[in-house]
Design a protein that fits this description.
The chain is α+β, with helices and mostly antiparallel strands and about 160 residues long. The protein has 4 helices and 5 strands, in the order αβββαααββ. α3 packs antiparallel against α4.
């Protein structure tokens, strides 16, 4: 009797559809905000979740690589801008008023490269989240029905 009760309750639990929660992403002023089931989750959780699907993991690695390149180009741009401002506001009046071309070109190139890296990072981040969420689109349905051959119940997929 206990075995039958356990078997029926197990079949009922299997037949209930359980779905994992999809990730929602919002771009904020200070970066990205991630939510799962309306609750905020941190980046380490998202990193671990993205490793469950190979496609989303690949896009997530590309996102992190482009985000790090964006940070490096941002630091380079700050350096070139400081160099350019120091050259503009130099107190040495005996010097020519011509602006050196190296810091101007460096700041411009690092600005453009940084924008490219940031746009690519956002693209790969969006693709990683979409590919992770697509894994939940395939609904596996199972239900209990009467057996077609004899007495009993059957679990159908």
């Amino acid at each position: 009797m206990i075995y039958k009760l356990f078997s029926i309750s197990l079949l009922v639990l299997i037949s209930l559809s359980s779905t994992a929660q999809e990730i929602t992403h919002f771009q904020t002023f200070w970066g990205s905000a991630y939510y799962e089931d309306g609750e905020s989750v941190d980046m380490s959780y998202i990193d671990s979740v993205m490793k469950t699907d190979p496609t989303s993991e690949e896009h997530w690695k590309k996102f992190k690589r482009n985000r790090n390149a964006f940070i490096v180009t941002g630091i380079a741009q700050i350096g070139f801008t400081i160099w350019m401002l120091e050259d503009i506001f130099d107190d040495d009046f005996g010097r020519s008023s011509d602006l050196d071309i190296v810091p101007v070109v460096g700041a411009t190139v690092s600005l453009v490269a940084g924008l490219v890296f940031q746009l690519r990072a956002l693209k790969f981040q969006r693709e990683a989240i979409h590919s992770y969420n697509r894994t939940f689109d395939v609904a596996e349905t199972s239900y209990i029905s009467p057996s077609r051959e004899g007495l009993g119940i059957a679990l159908n997929f």
